[in-house]
């Protein structure tokens, strides 16, 4: 995260998670205020930026929306390297995507920036009737 004299902060943000978890939908909602019912799969990664006023500061997010297909997994370190924050996204109607999200957390703990802010996001809450991931609170490792 870089700060300039006029309270301007640049922050690299990366979204990680399985294909179909809604990473691109989250980014589009944040950046453009849009939701598309049918979203094409991301190939490699997509880049967006969004600037927000937070208190007296201006924060410019440089957002990397990564592809969730396994064949692109080896590219992920290139995107999360140097990131100030990561959002690991899973689909609440897919226990497999939640298990994979745990692996992303472990990878970031081992290889990511130790000061990186990490968030776990359960997405597709409109599919509550198809929920496969419990809402039970579980202990989170100290380093998460």
Automatic annotation (TrEMBL):
Q: What is this protein called?
A: Ras-related protein
Do the record's keywords include 4Fe-4S? no
Per its UniProt record, what NCBIfam families does this chain match? small_GTP (TIGR00231)
Matches recorded under Pfam families: Ras
Which InterPro entries does this one have? P-loop_NTPase, Small_GTP-bd, Small_GTPase
Keyword tags: Nucleotide-binding
User: Could you tell me which PROSITE patterns the record lists for this protein?
Assistant: RAB, RAS
| Domain of life assignment | Eukaryota
For molecular function, the Gene Ontology terms on record are: GTP binding; GTPase activity
Its source organism is Musa troglodytarum (fe'i banana)
Q: Which PANTHER family match?
A: PTHR47978
């Amino acid at each position: 995260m870089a700060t300039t004299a006029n309270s301007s902060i640049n922050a690299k943000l990366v979204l990680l998670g399985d294909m179909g978890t809604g990473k691109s939908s989250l980014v589009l909602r944040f950046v453009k205020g849009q939701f598309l019912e049918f979203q094409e799969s991301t190939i490699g990664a997509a880049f967006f930026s969004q600037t927000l006023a937070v208190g007296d500061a201006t924060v410019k997010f440089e957002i990397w929306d990564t592809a969730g297909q396994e064949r692109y997994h080896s590219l992920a370190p290139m995107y999360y390297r140097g990131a100030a924050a990561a959002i690991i996204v899973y689909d609440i109607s897919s226990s497999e995507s939640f298990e994979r999200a745990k692996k992303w957390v472990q990878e970031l703990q081992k290889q990511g920036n130790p000061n990186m802010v990490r968030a776990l996001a359960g997405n597709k809450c409109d599919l509550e009737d198809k929920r496969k991931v419990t809402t039970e609170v579980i202990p989170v490792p100290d380093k998460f």
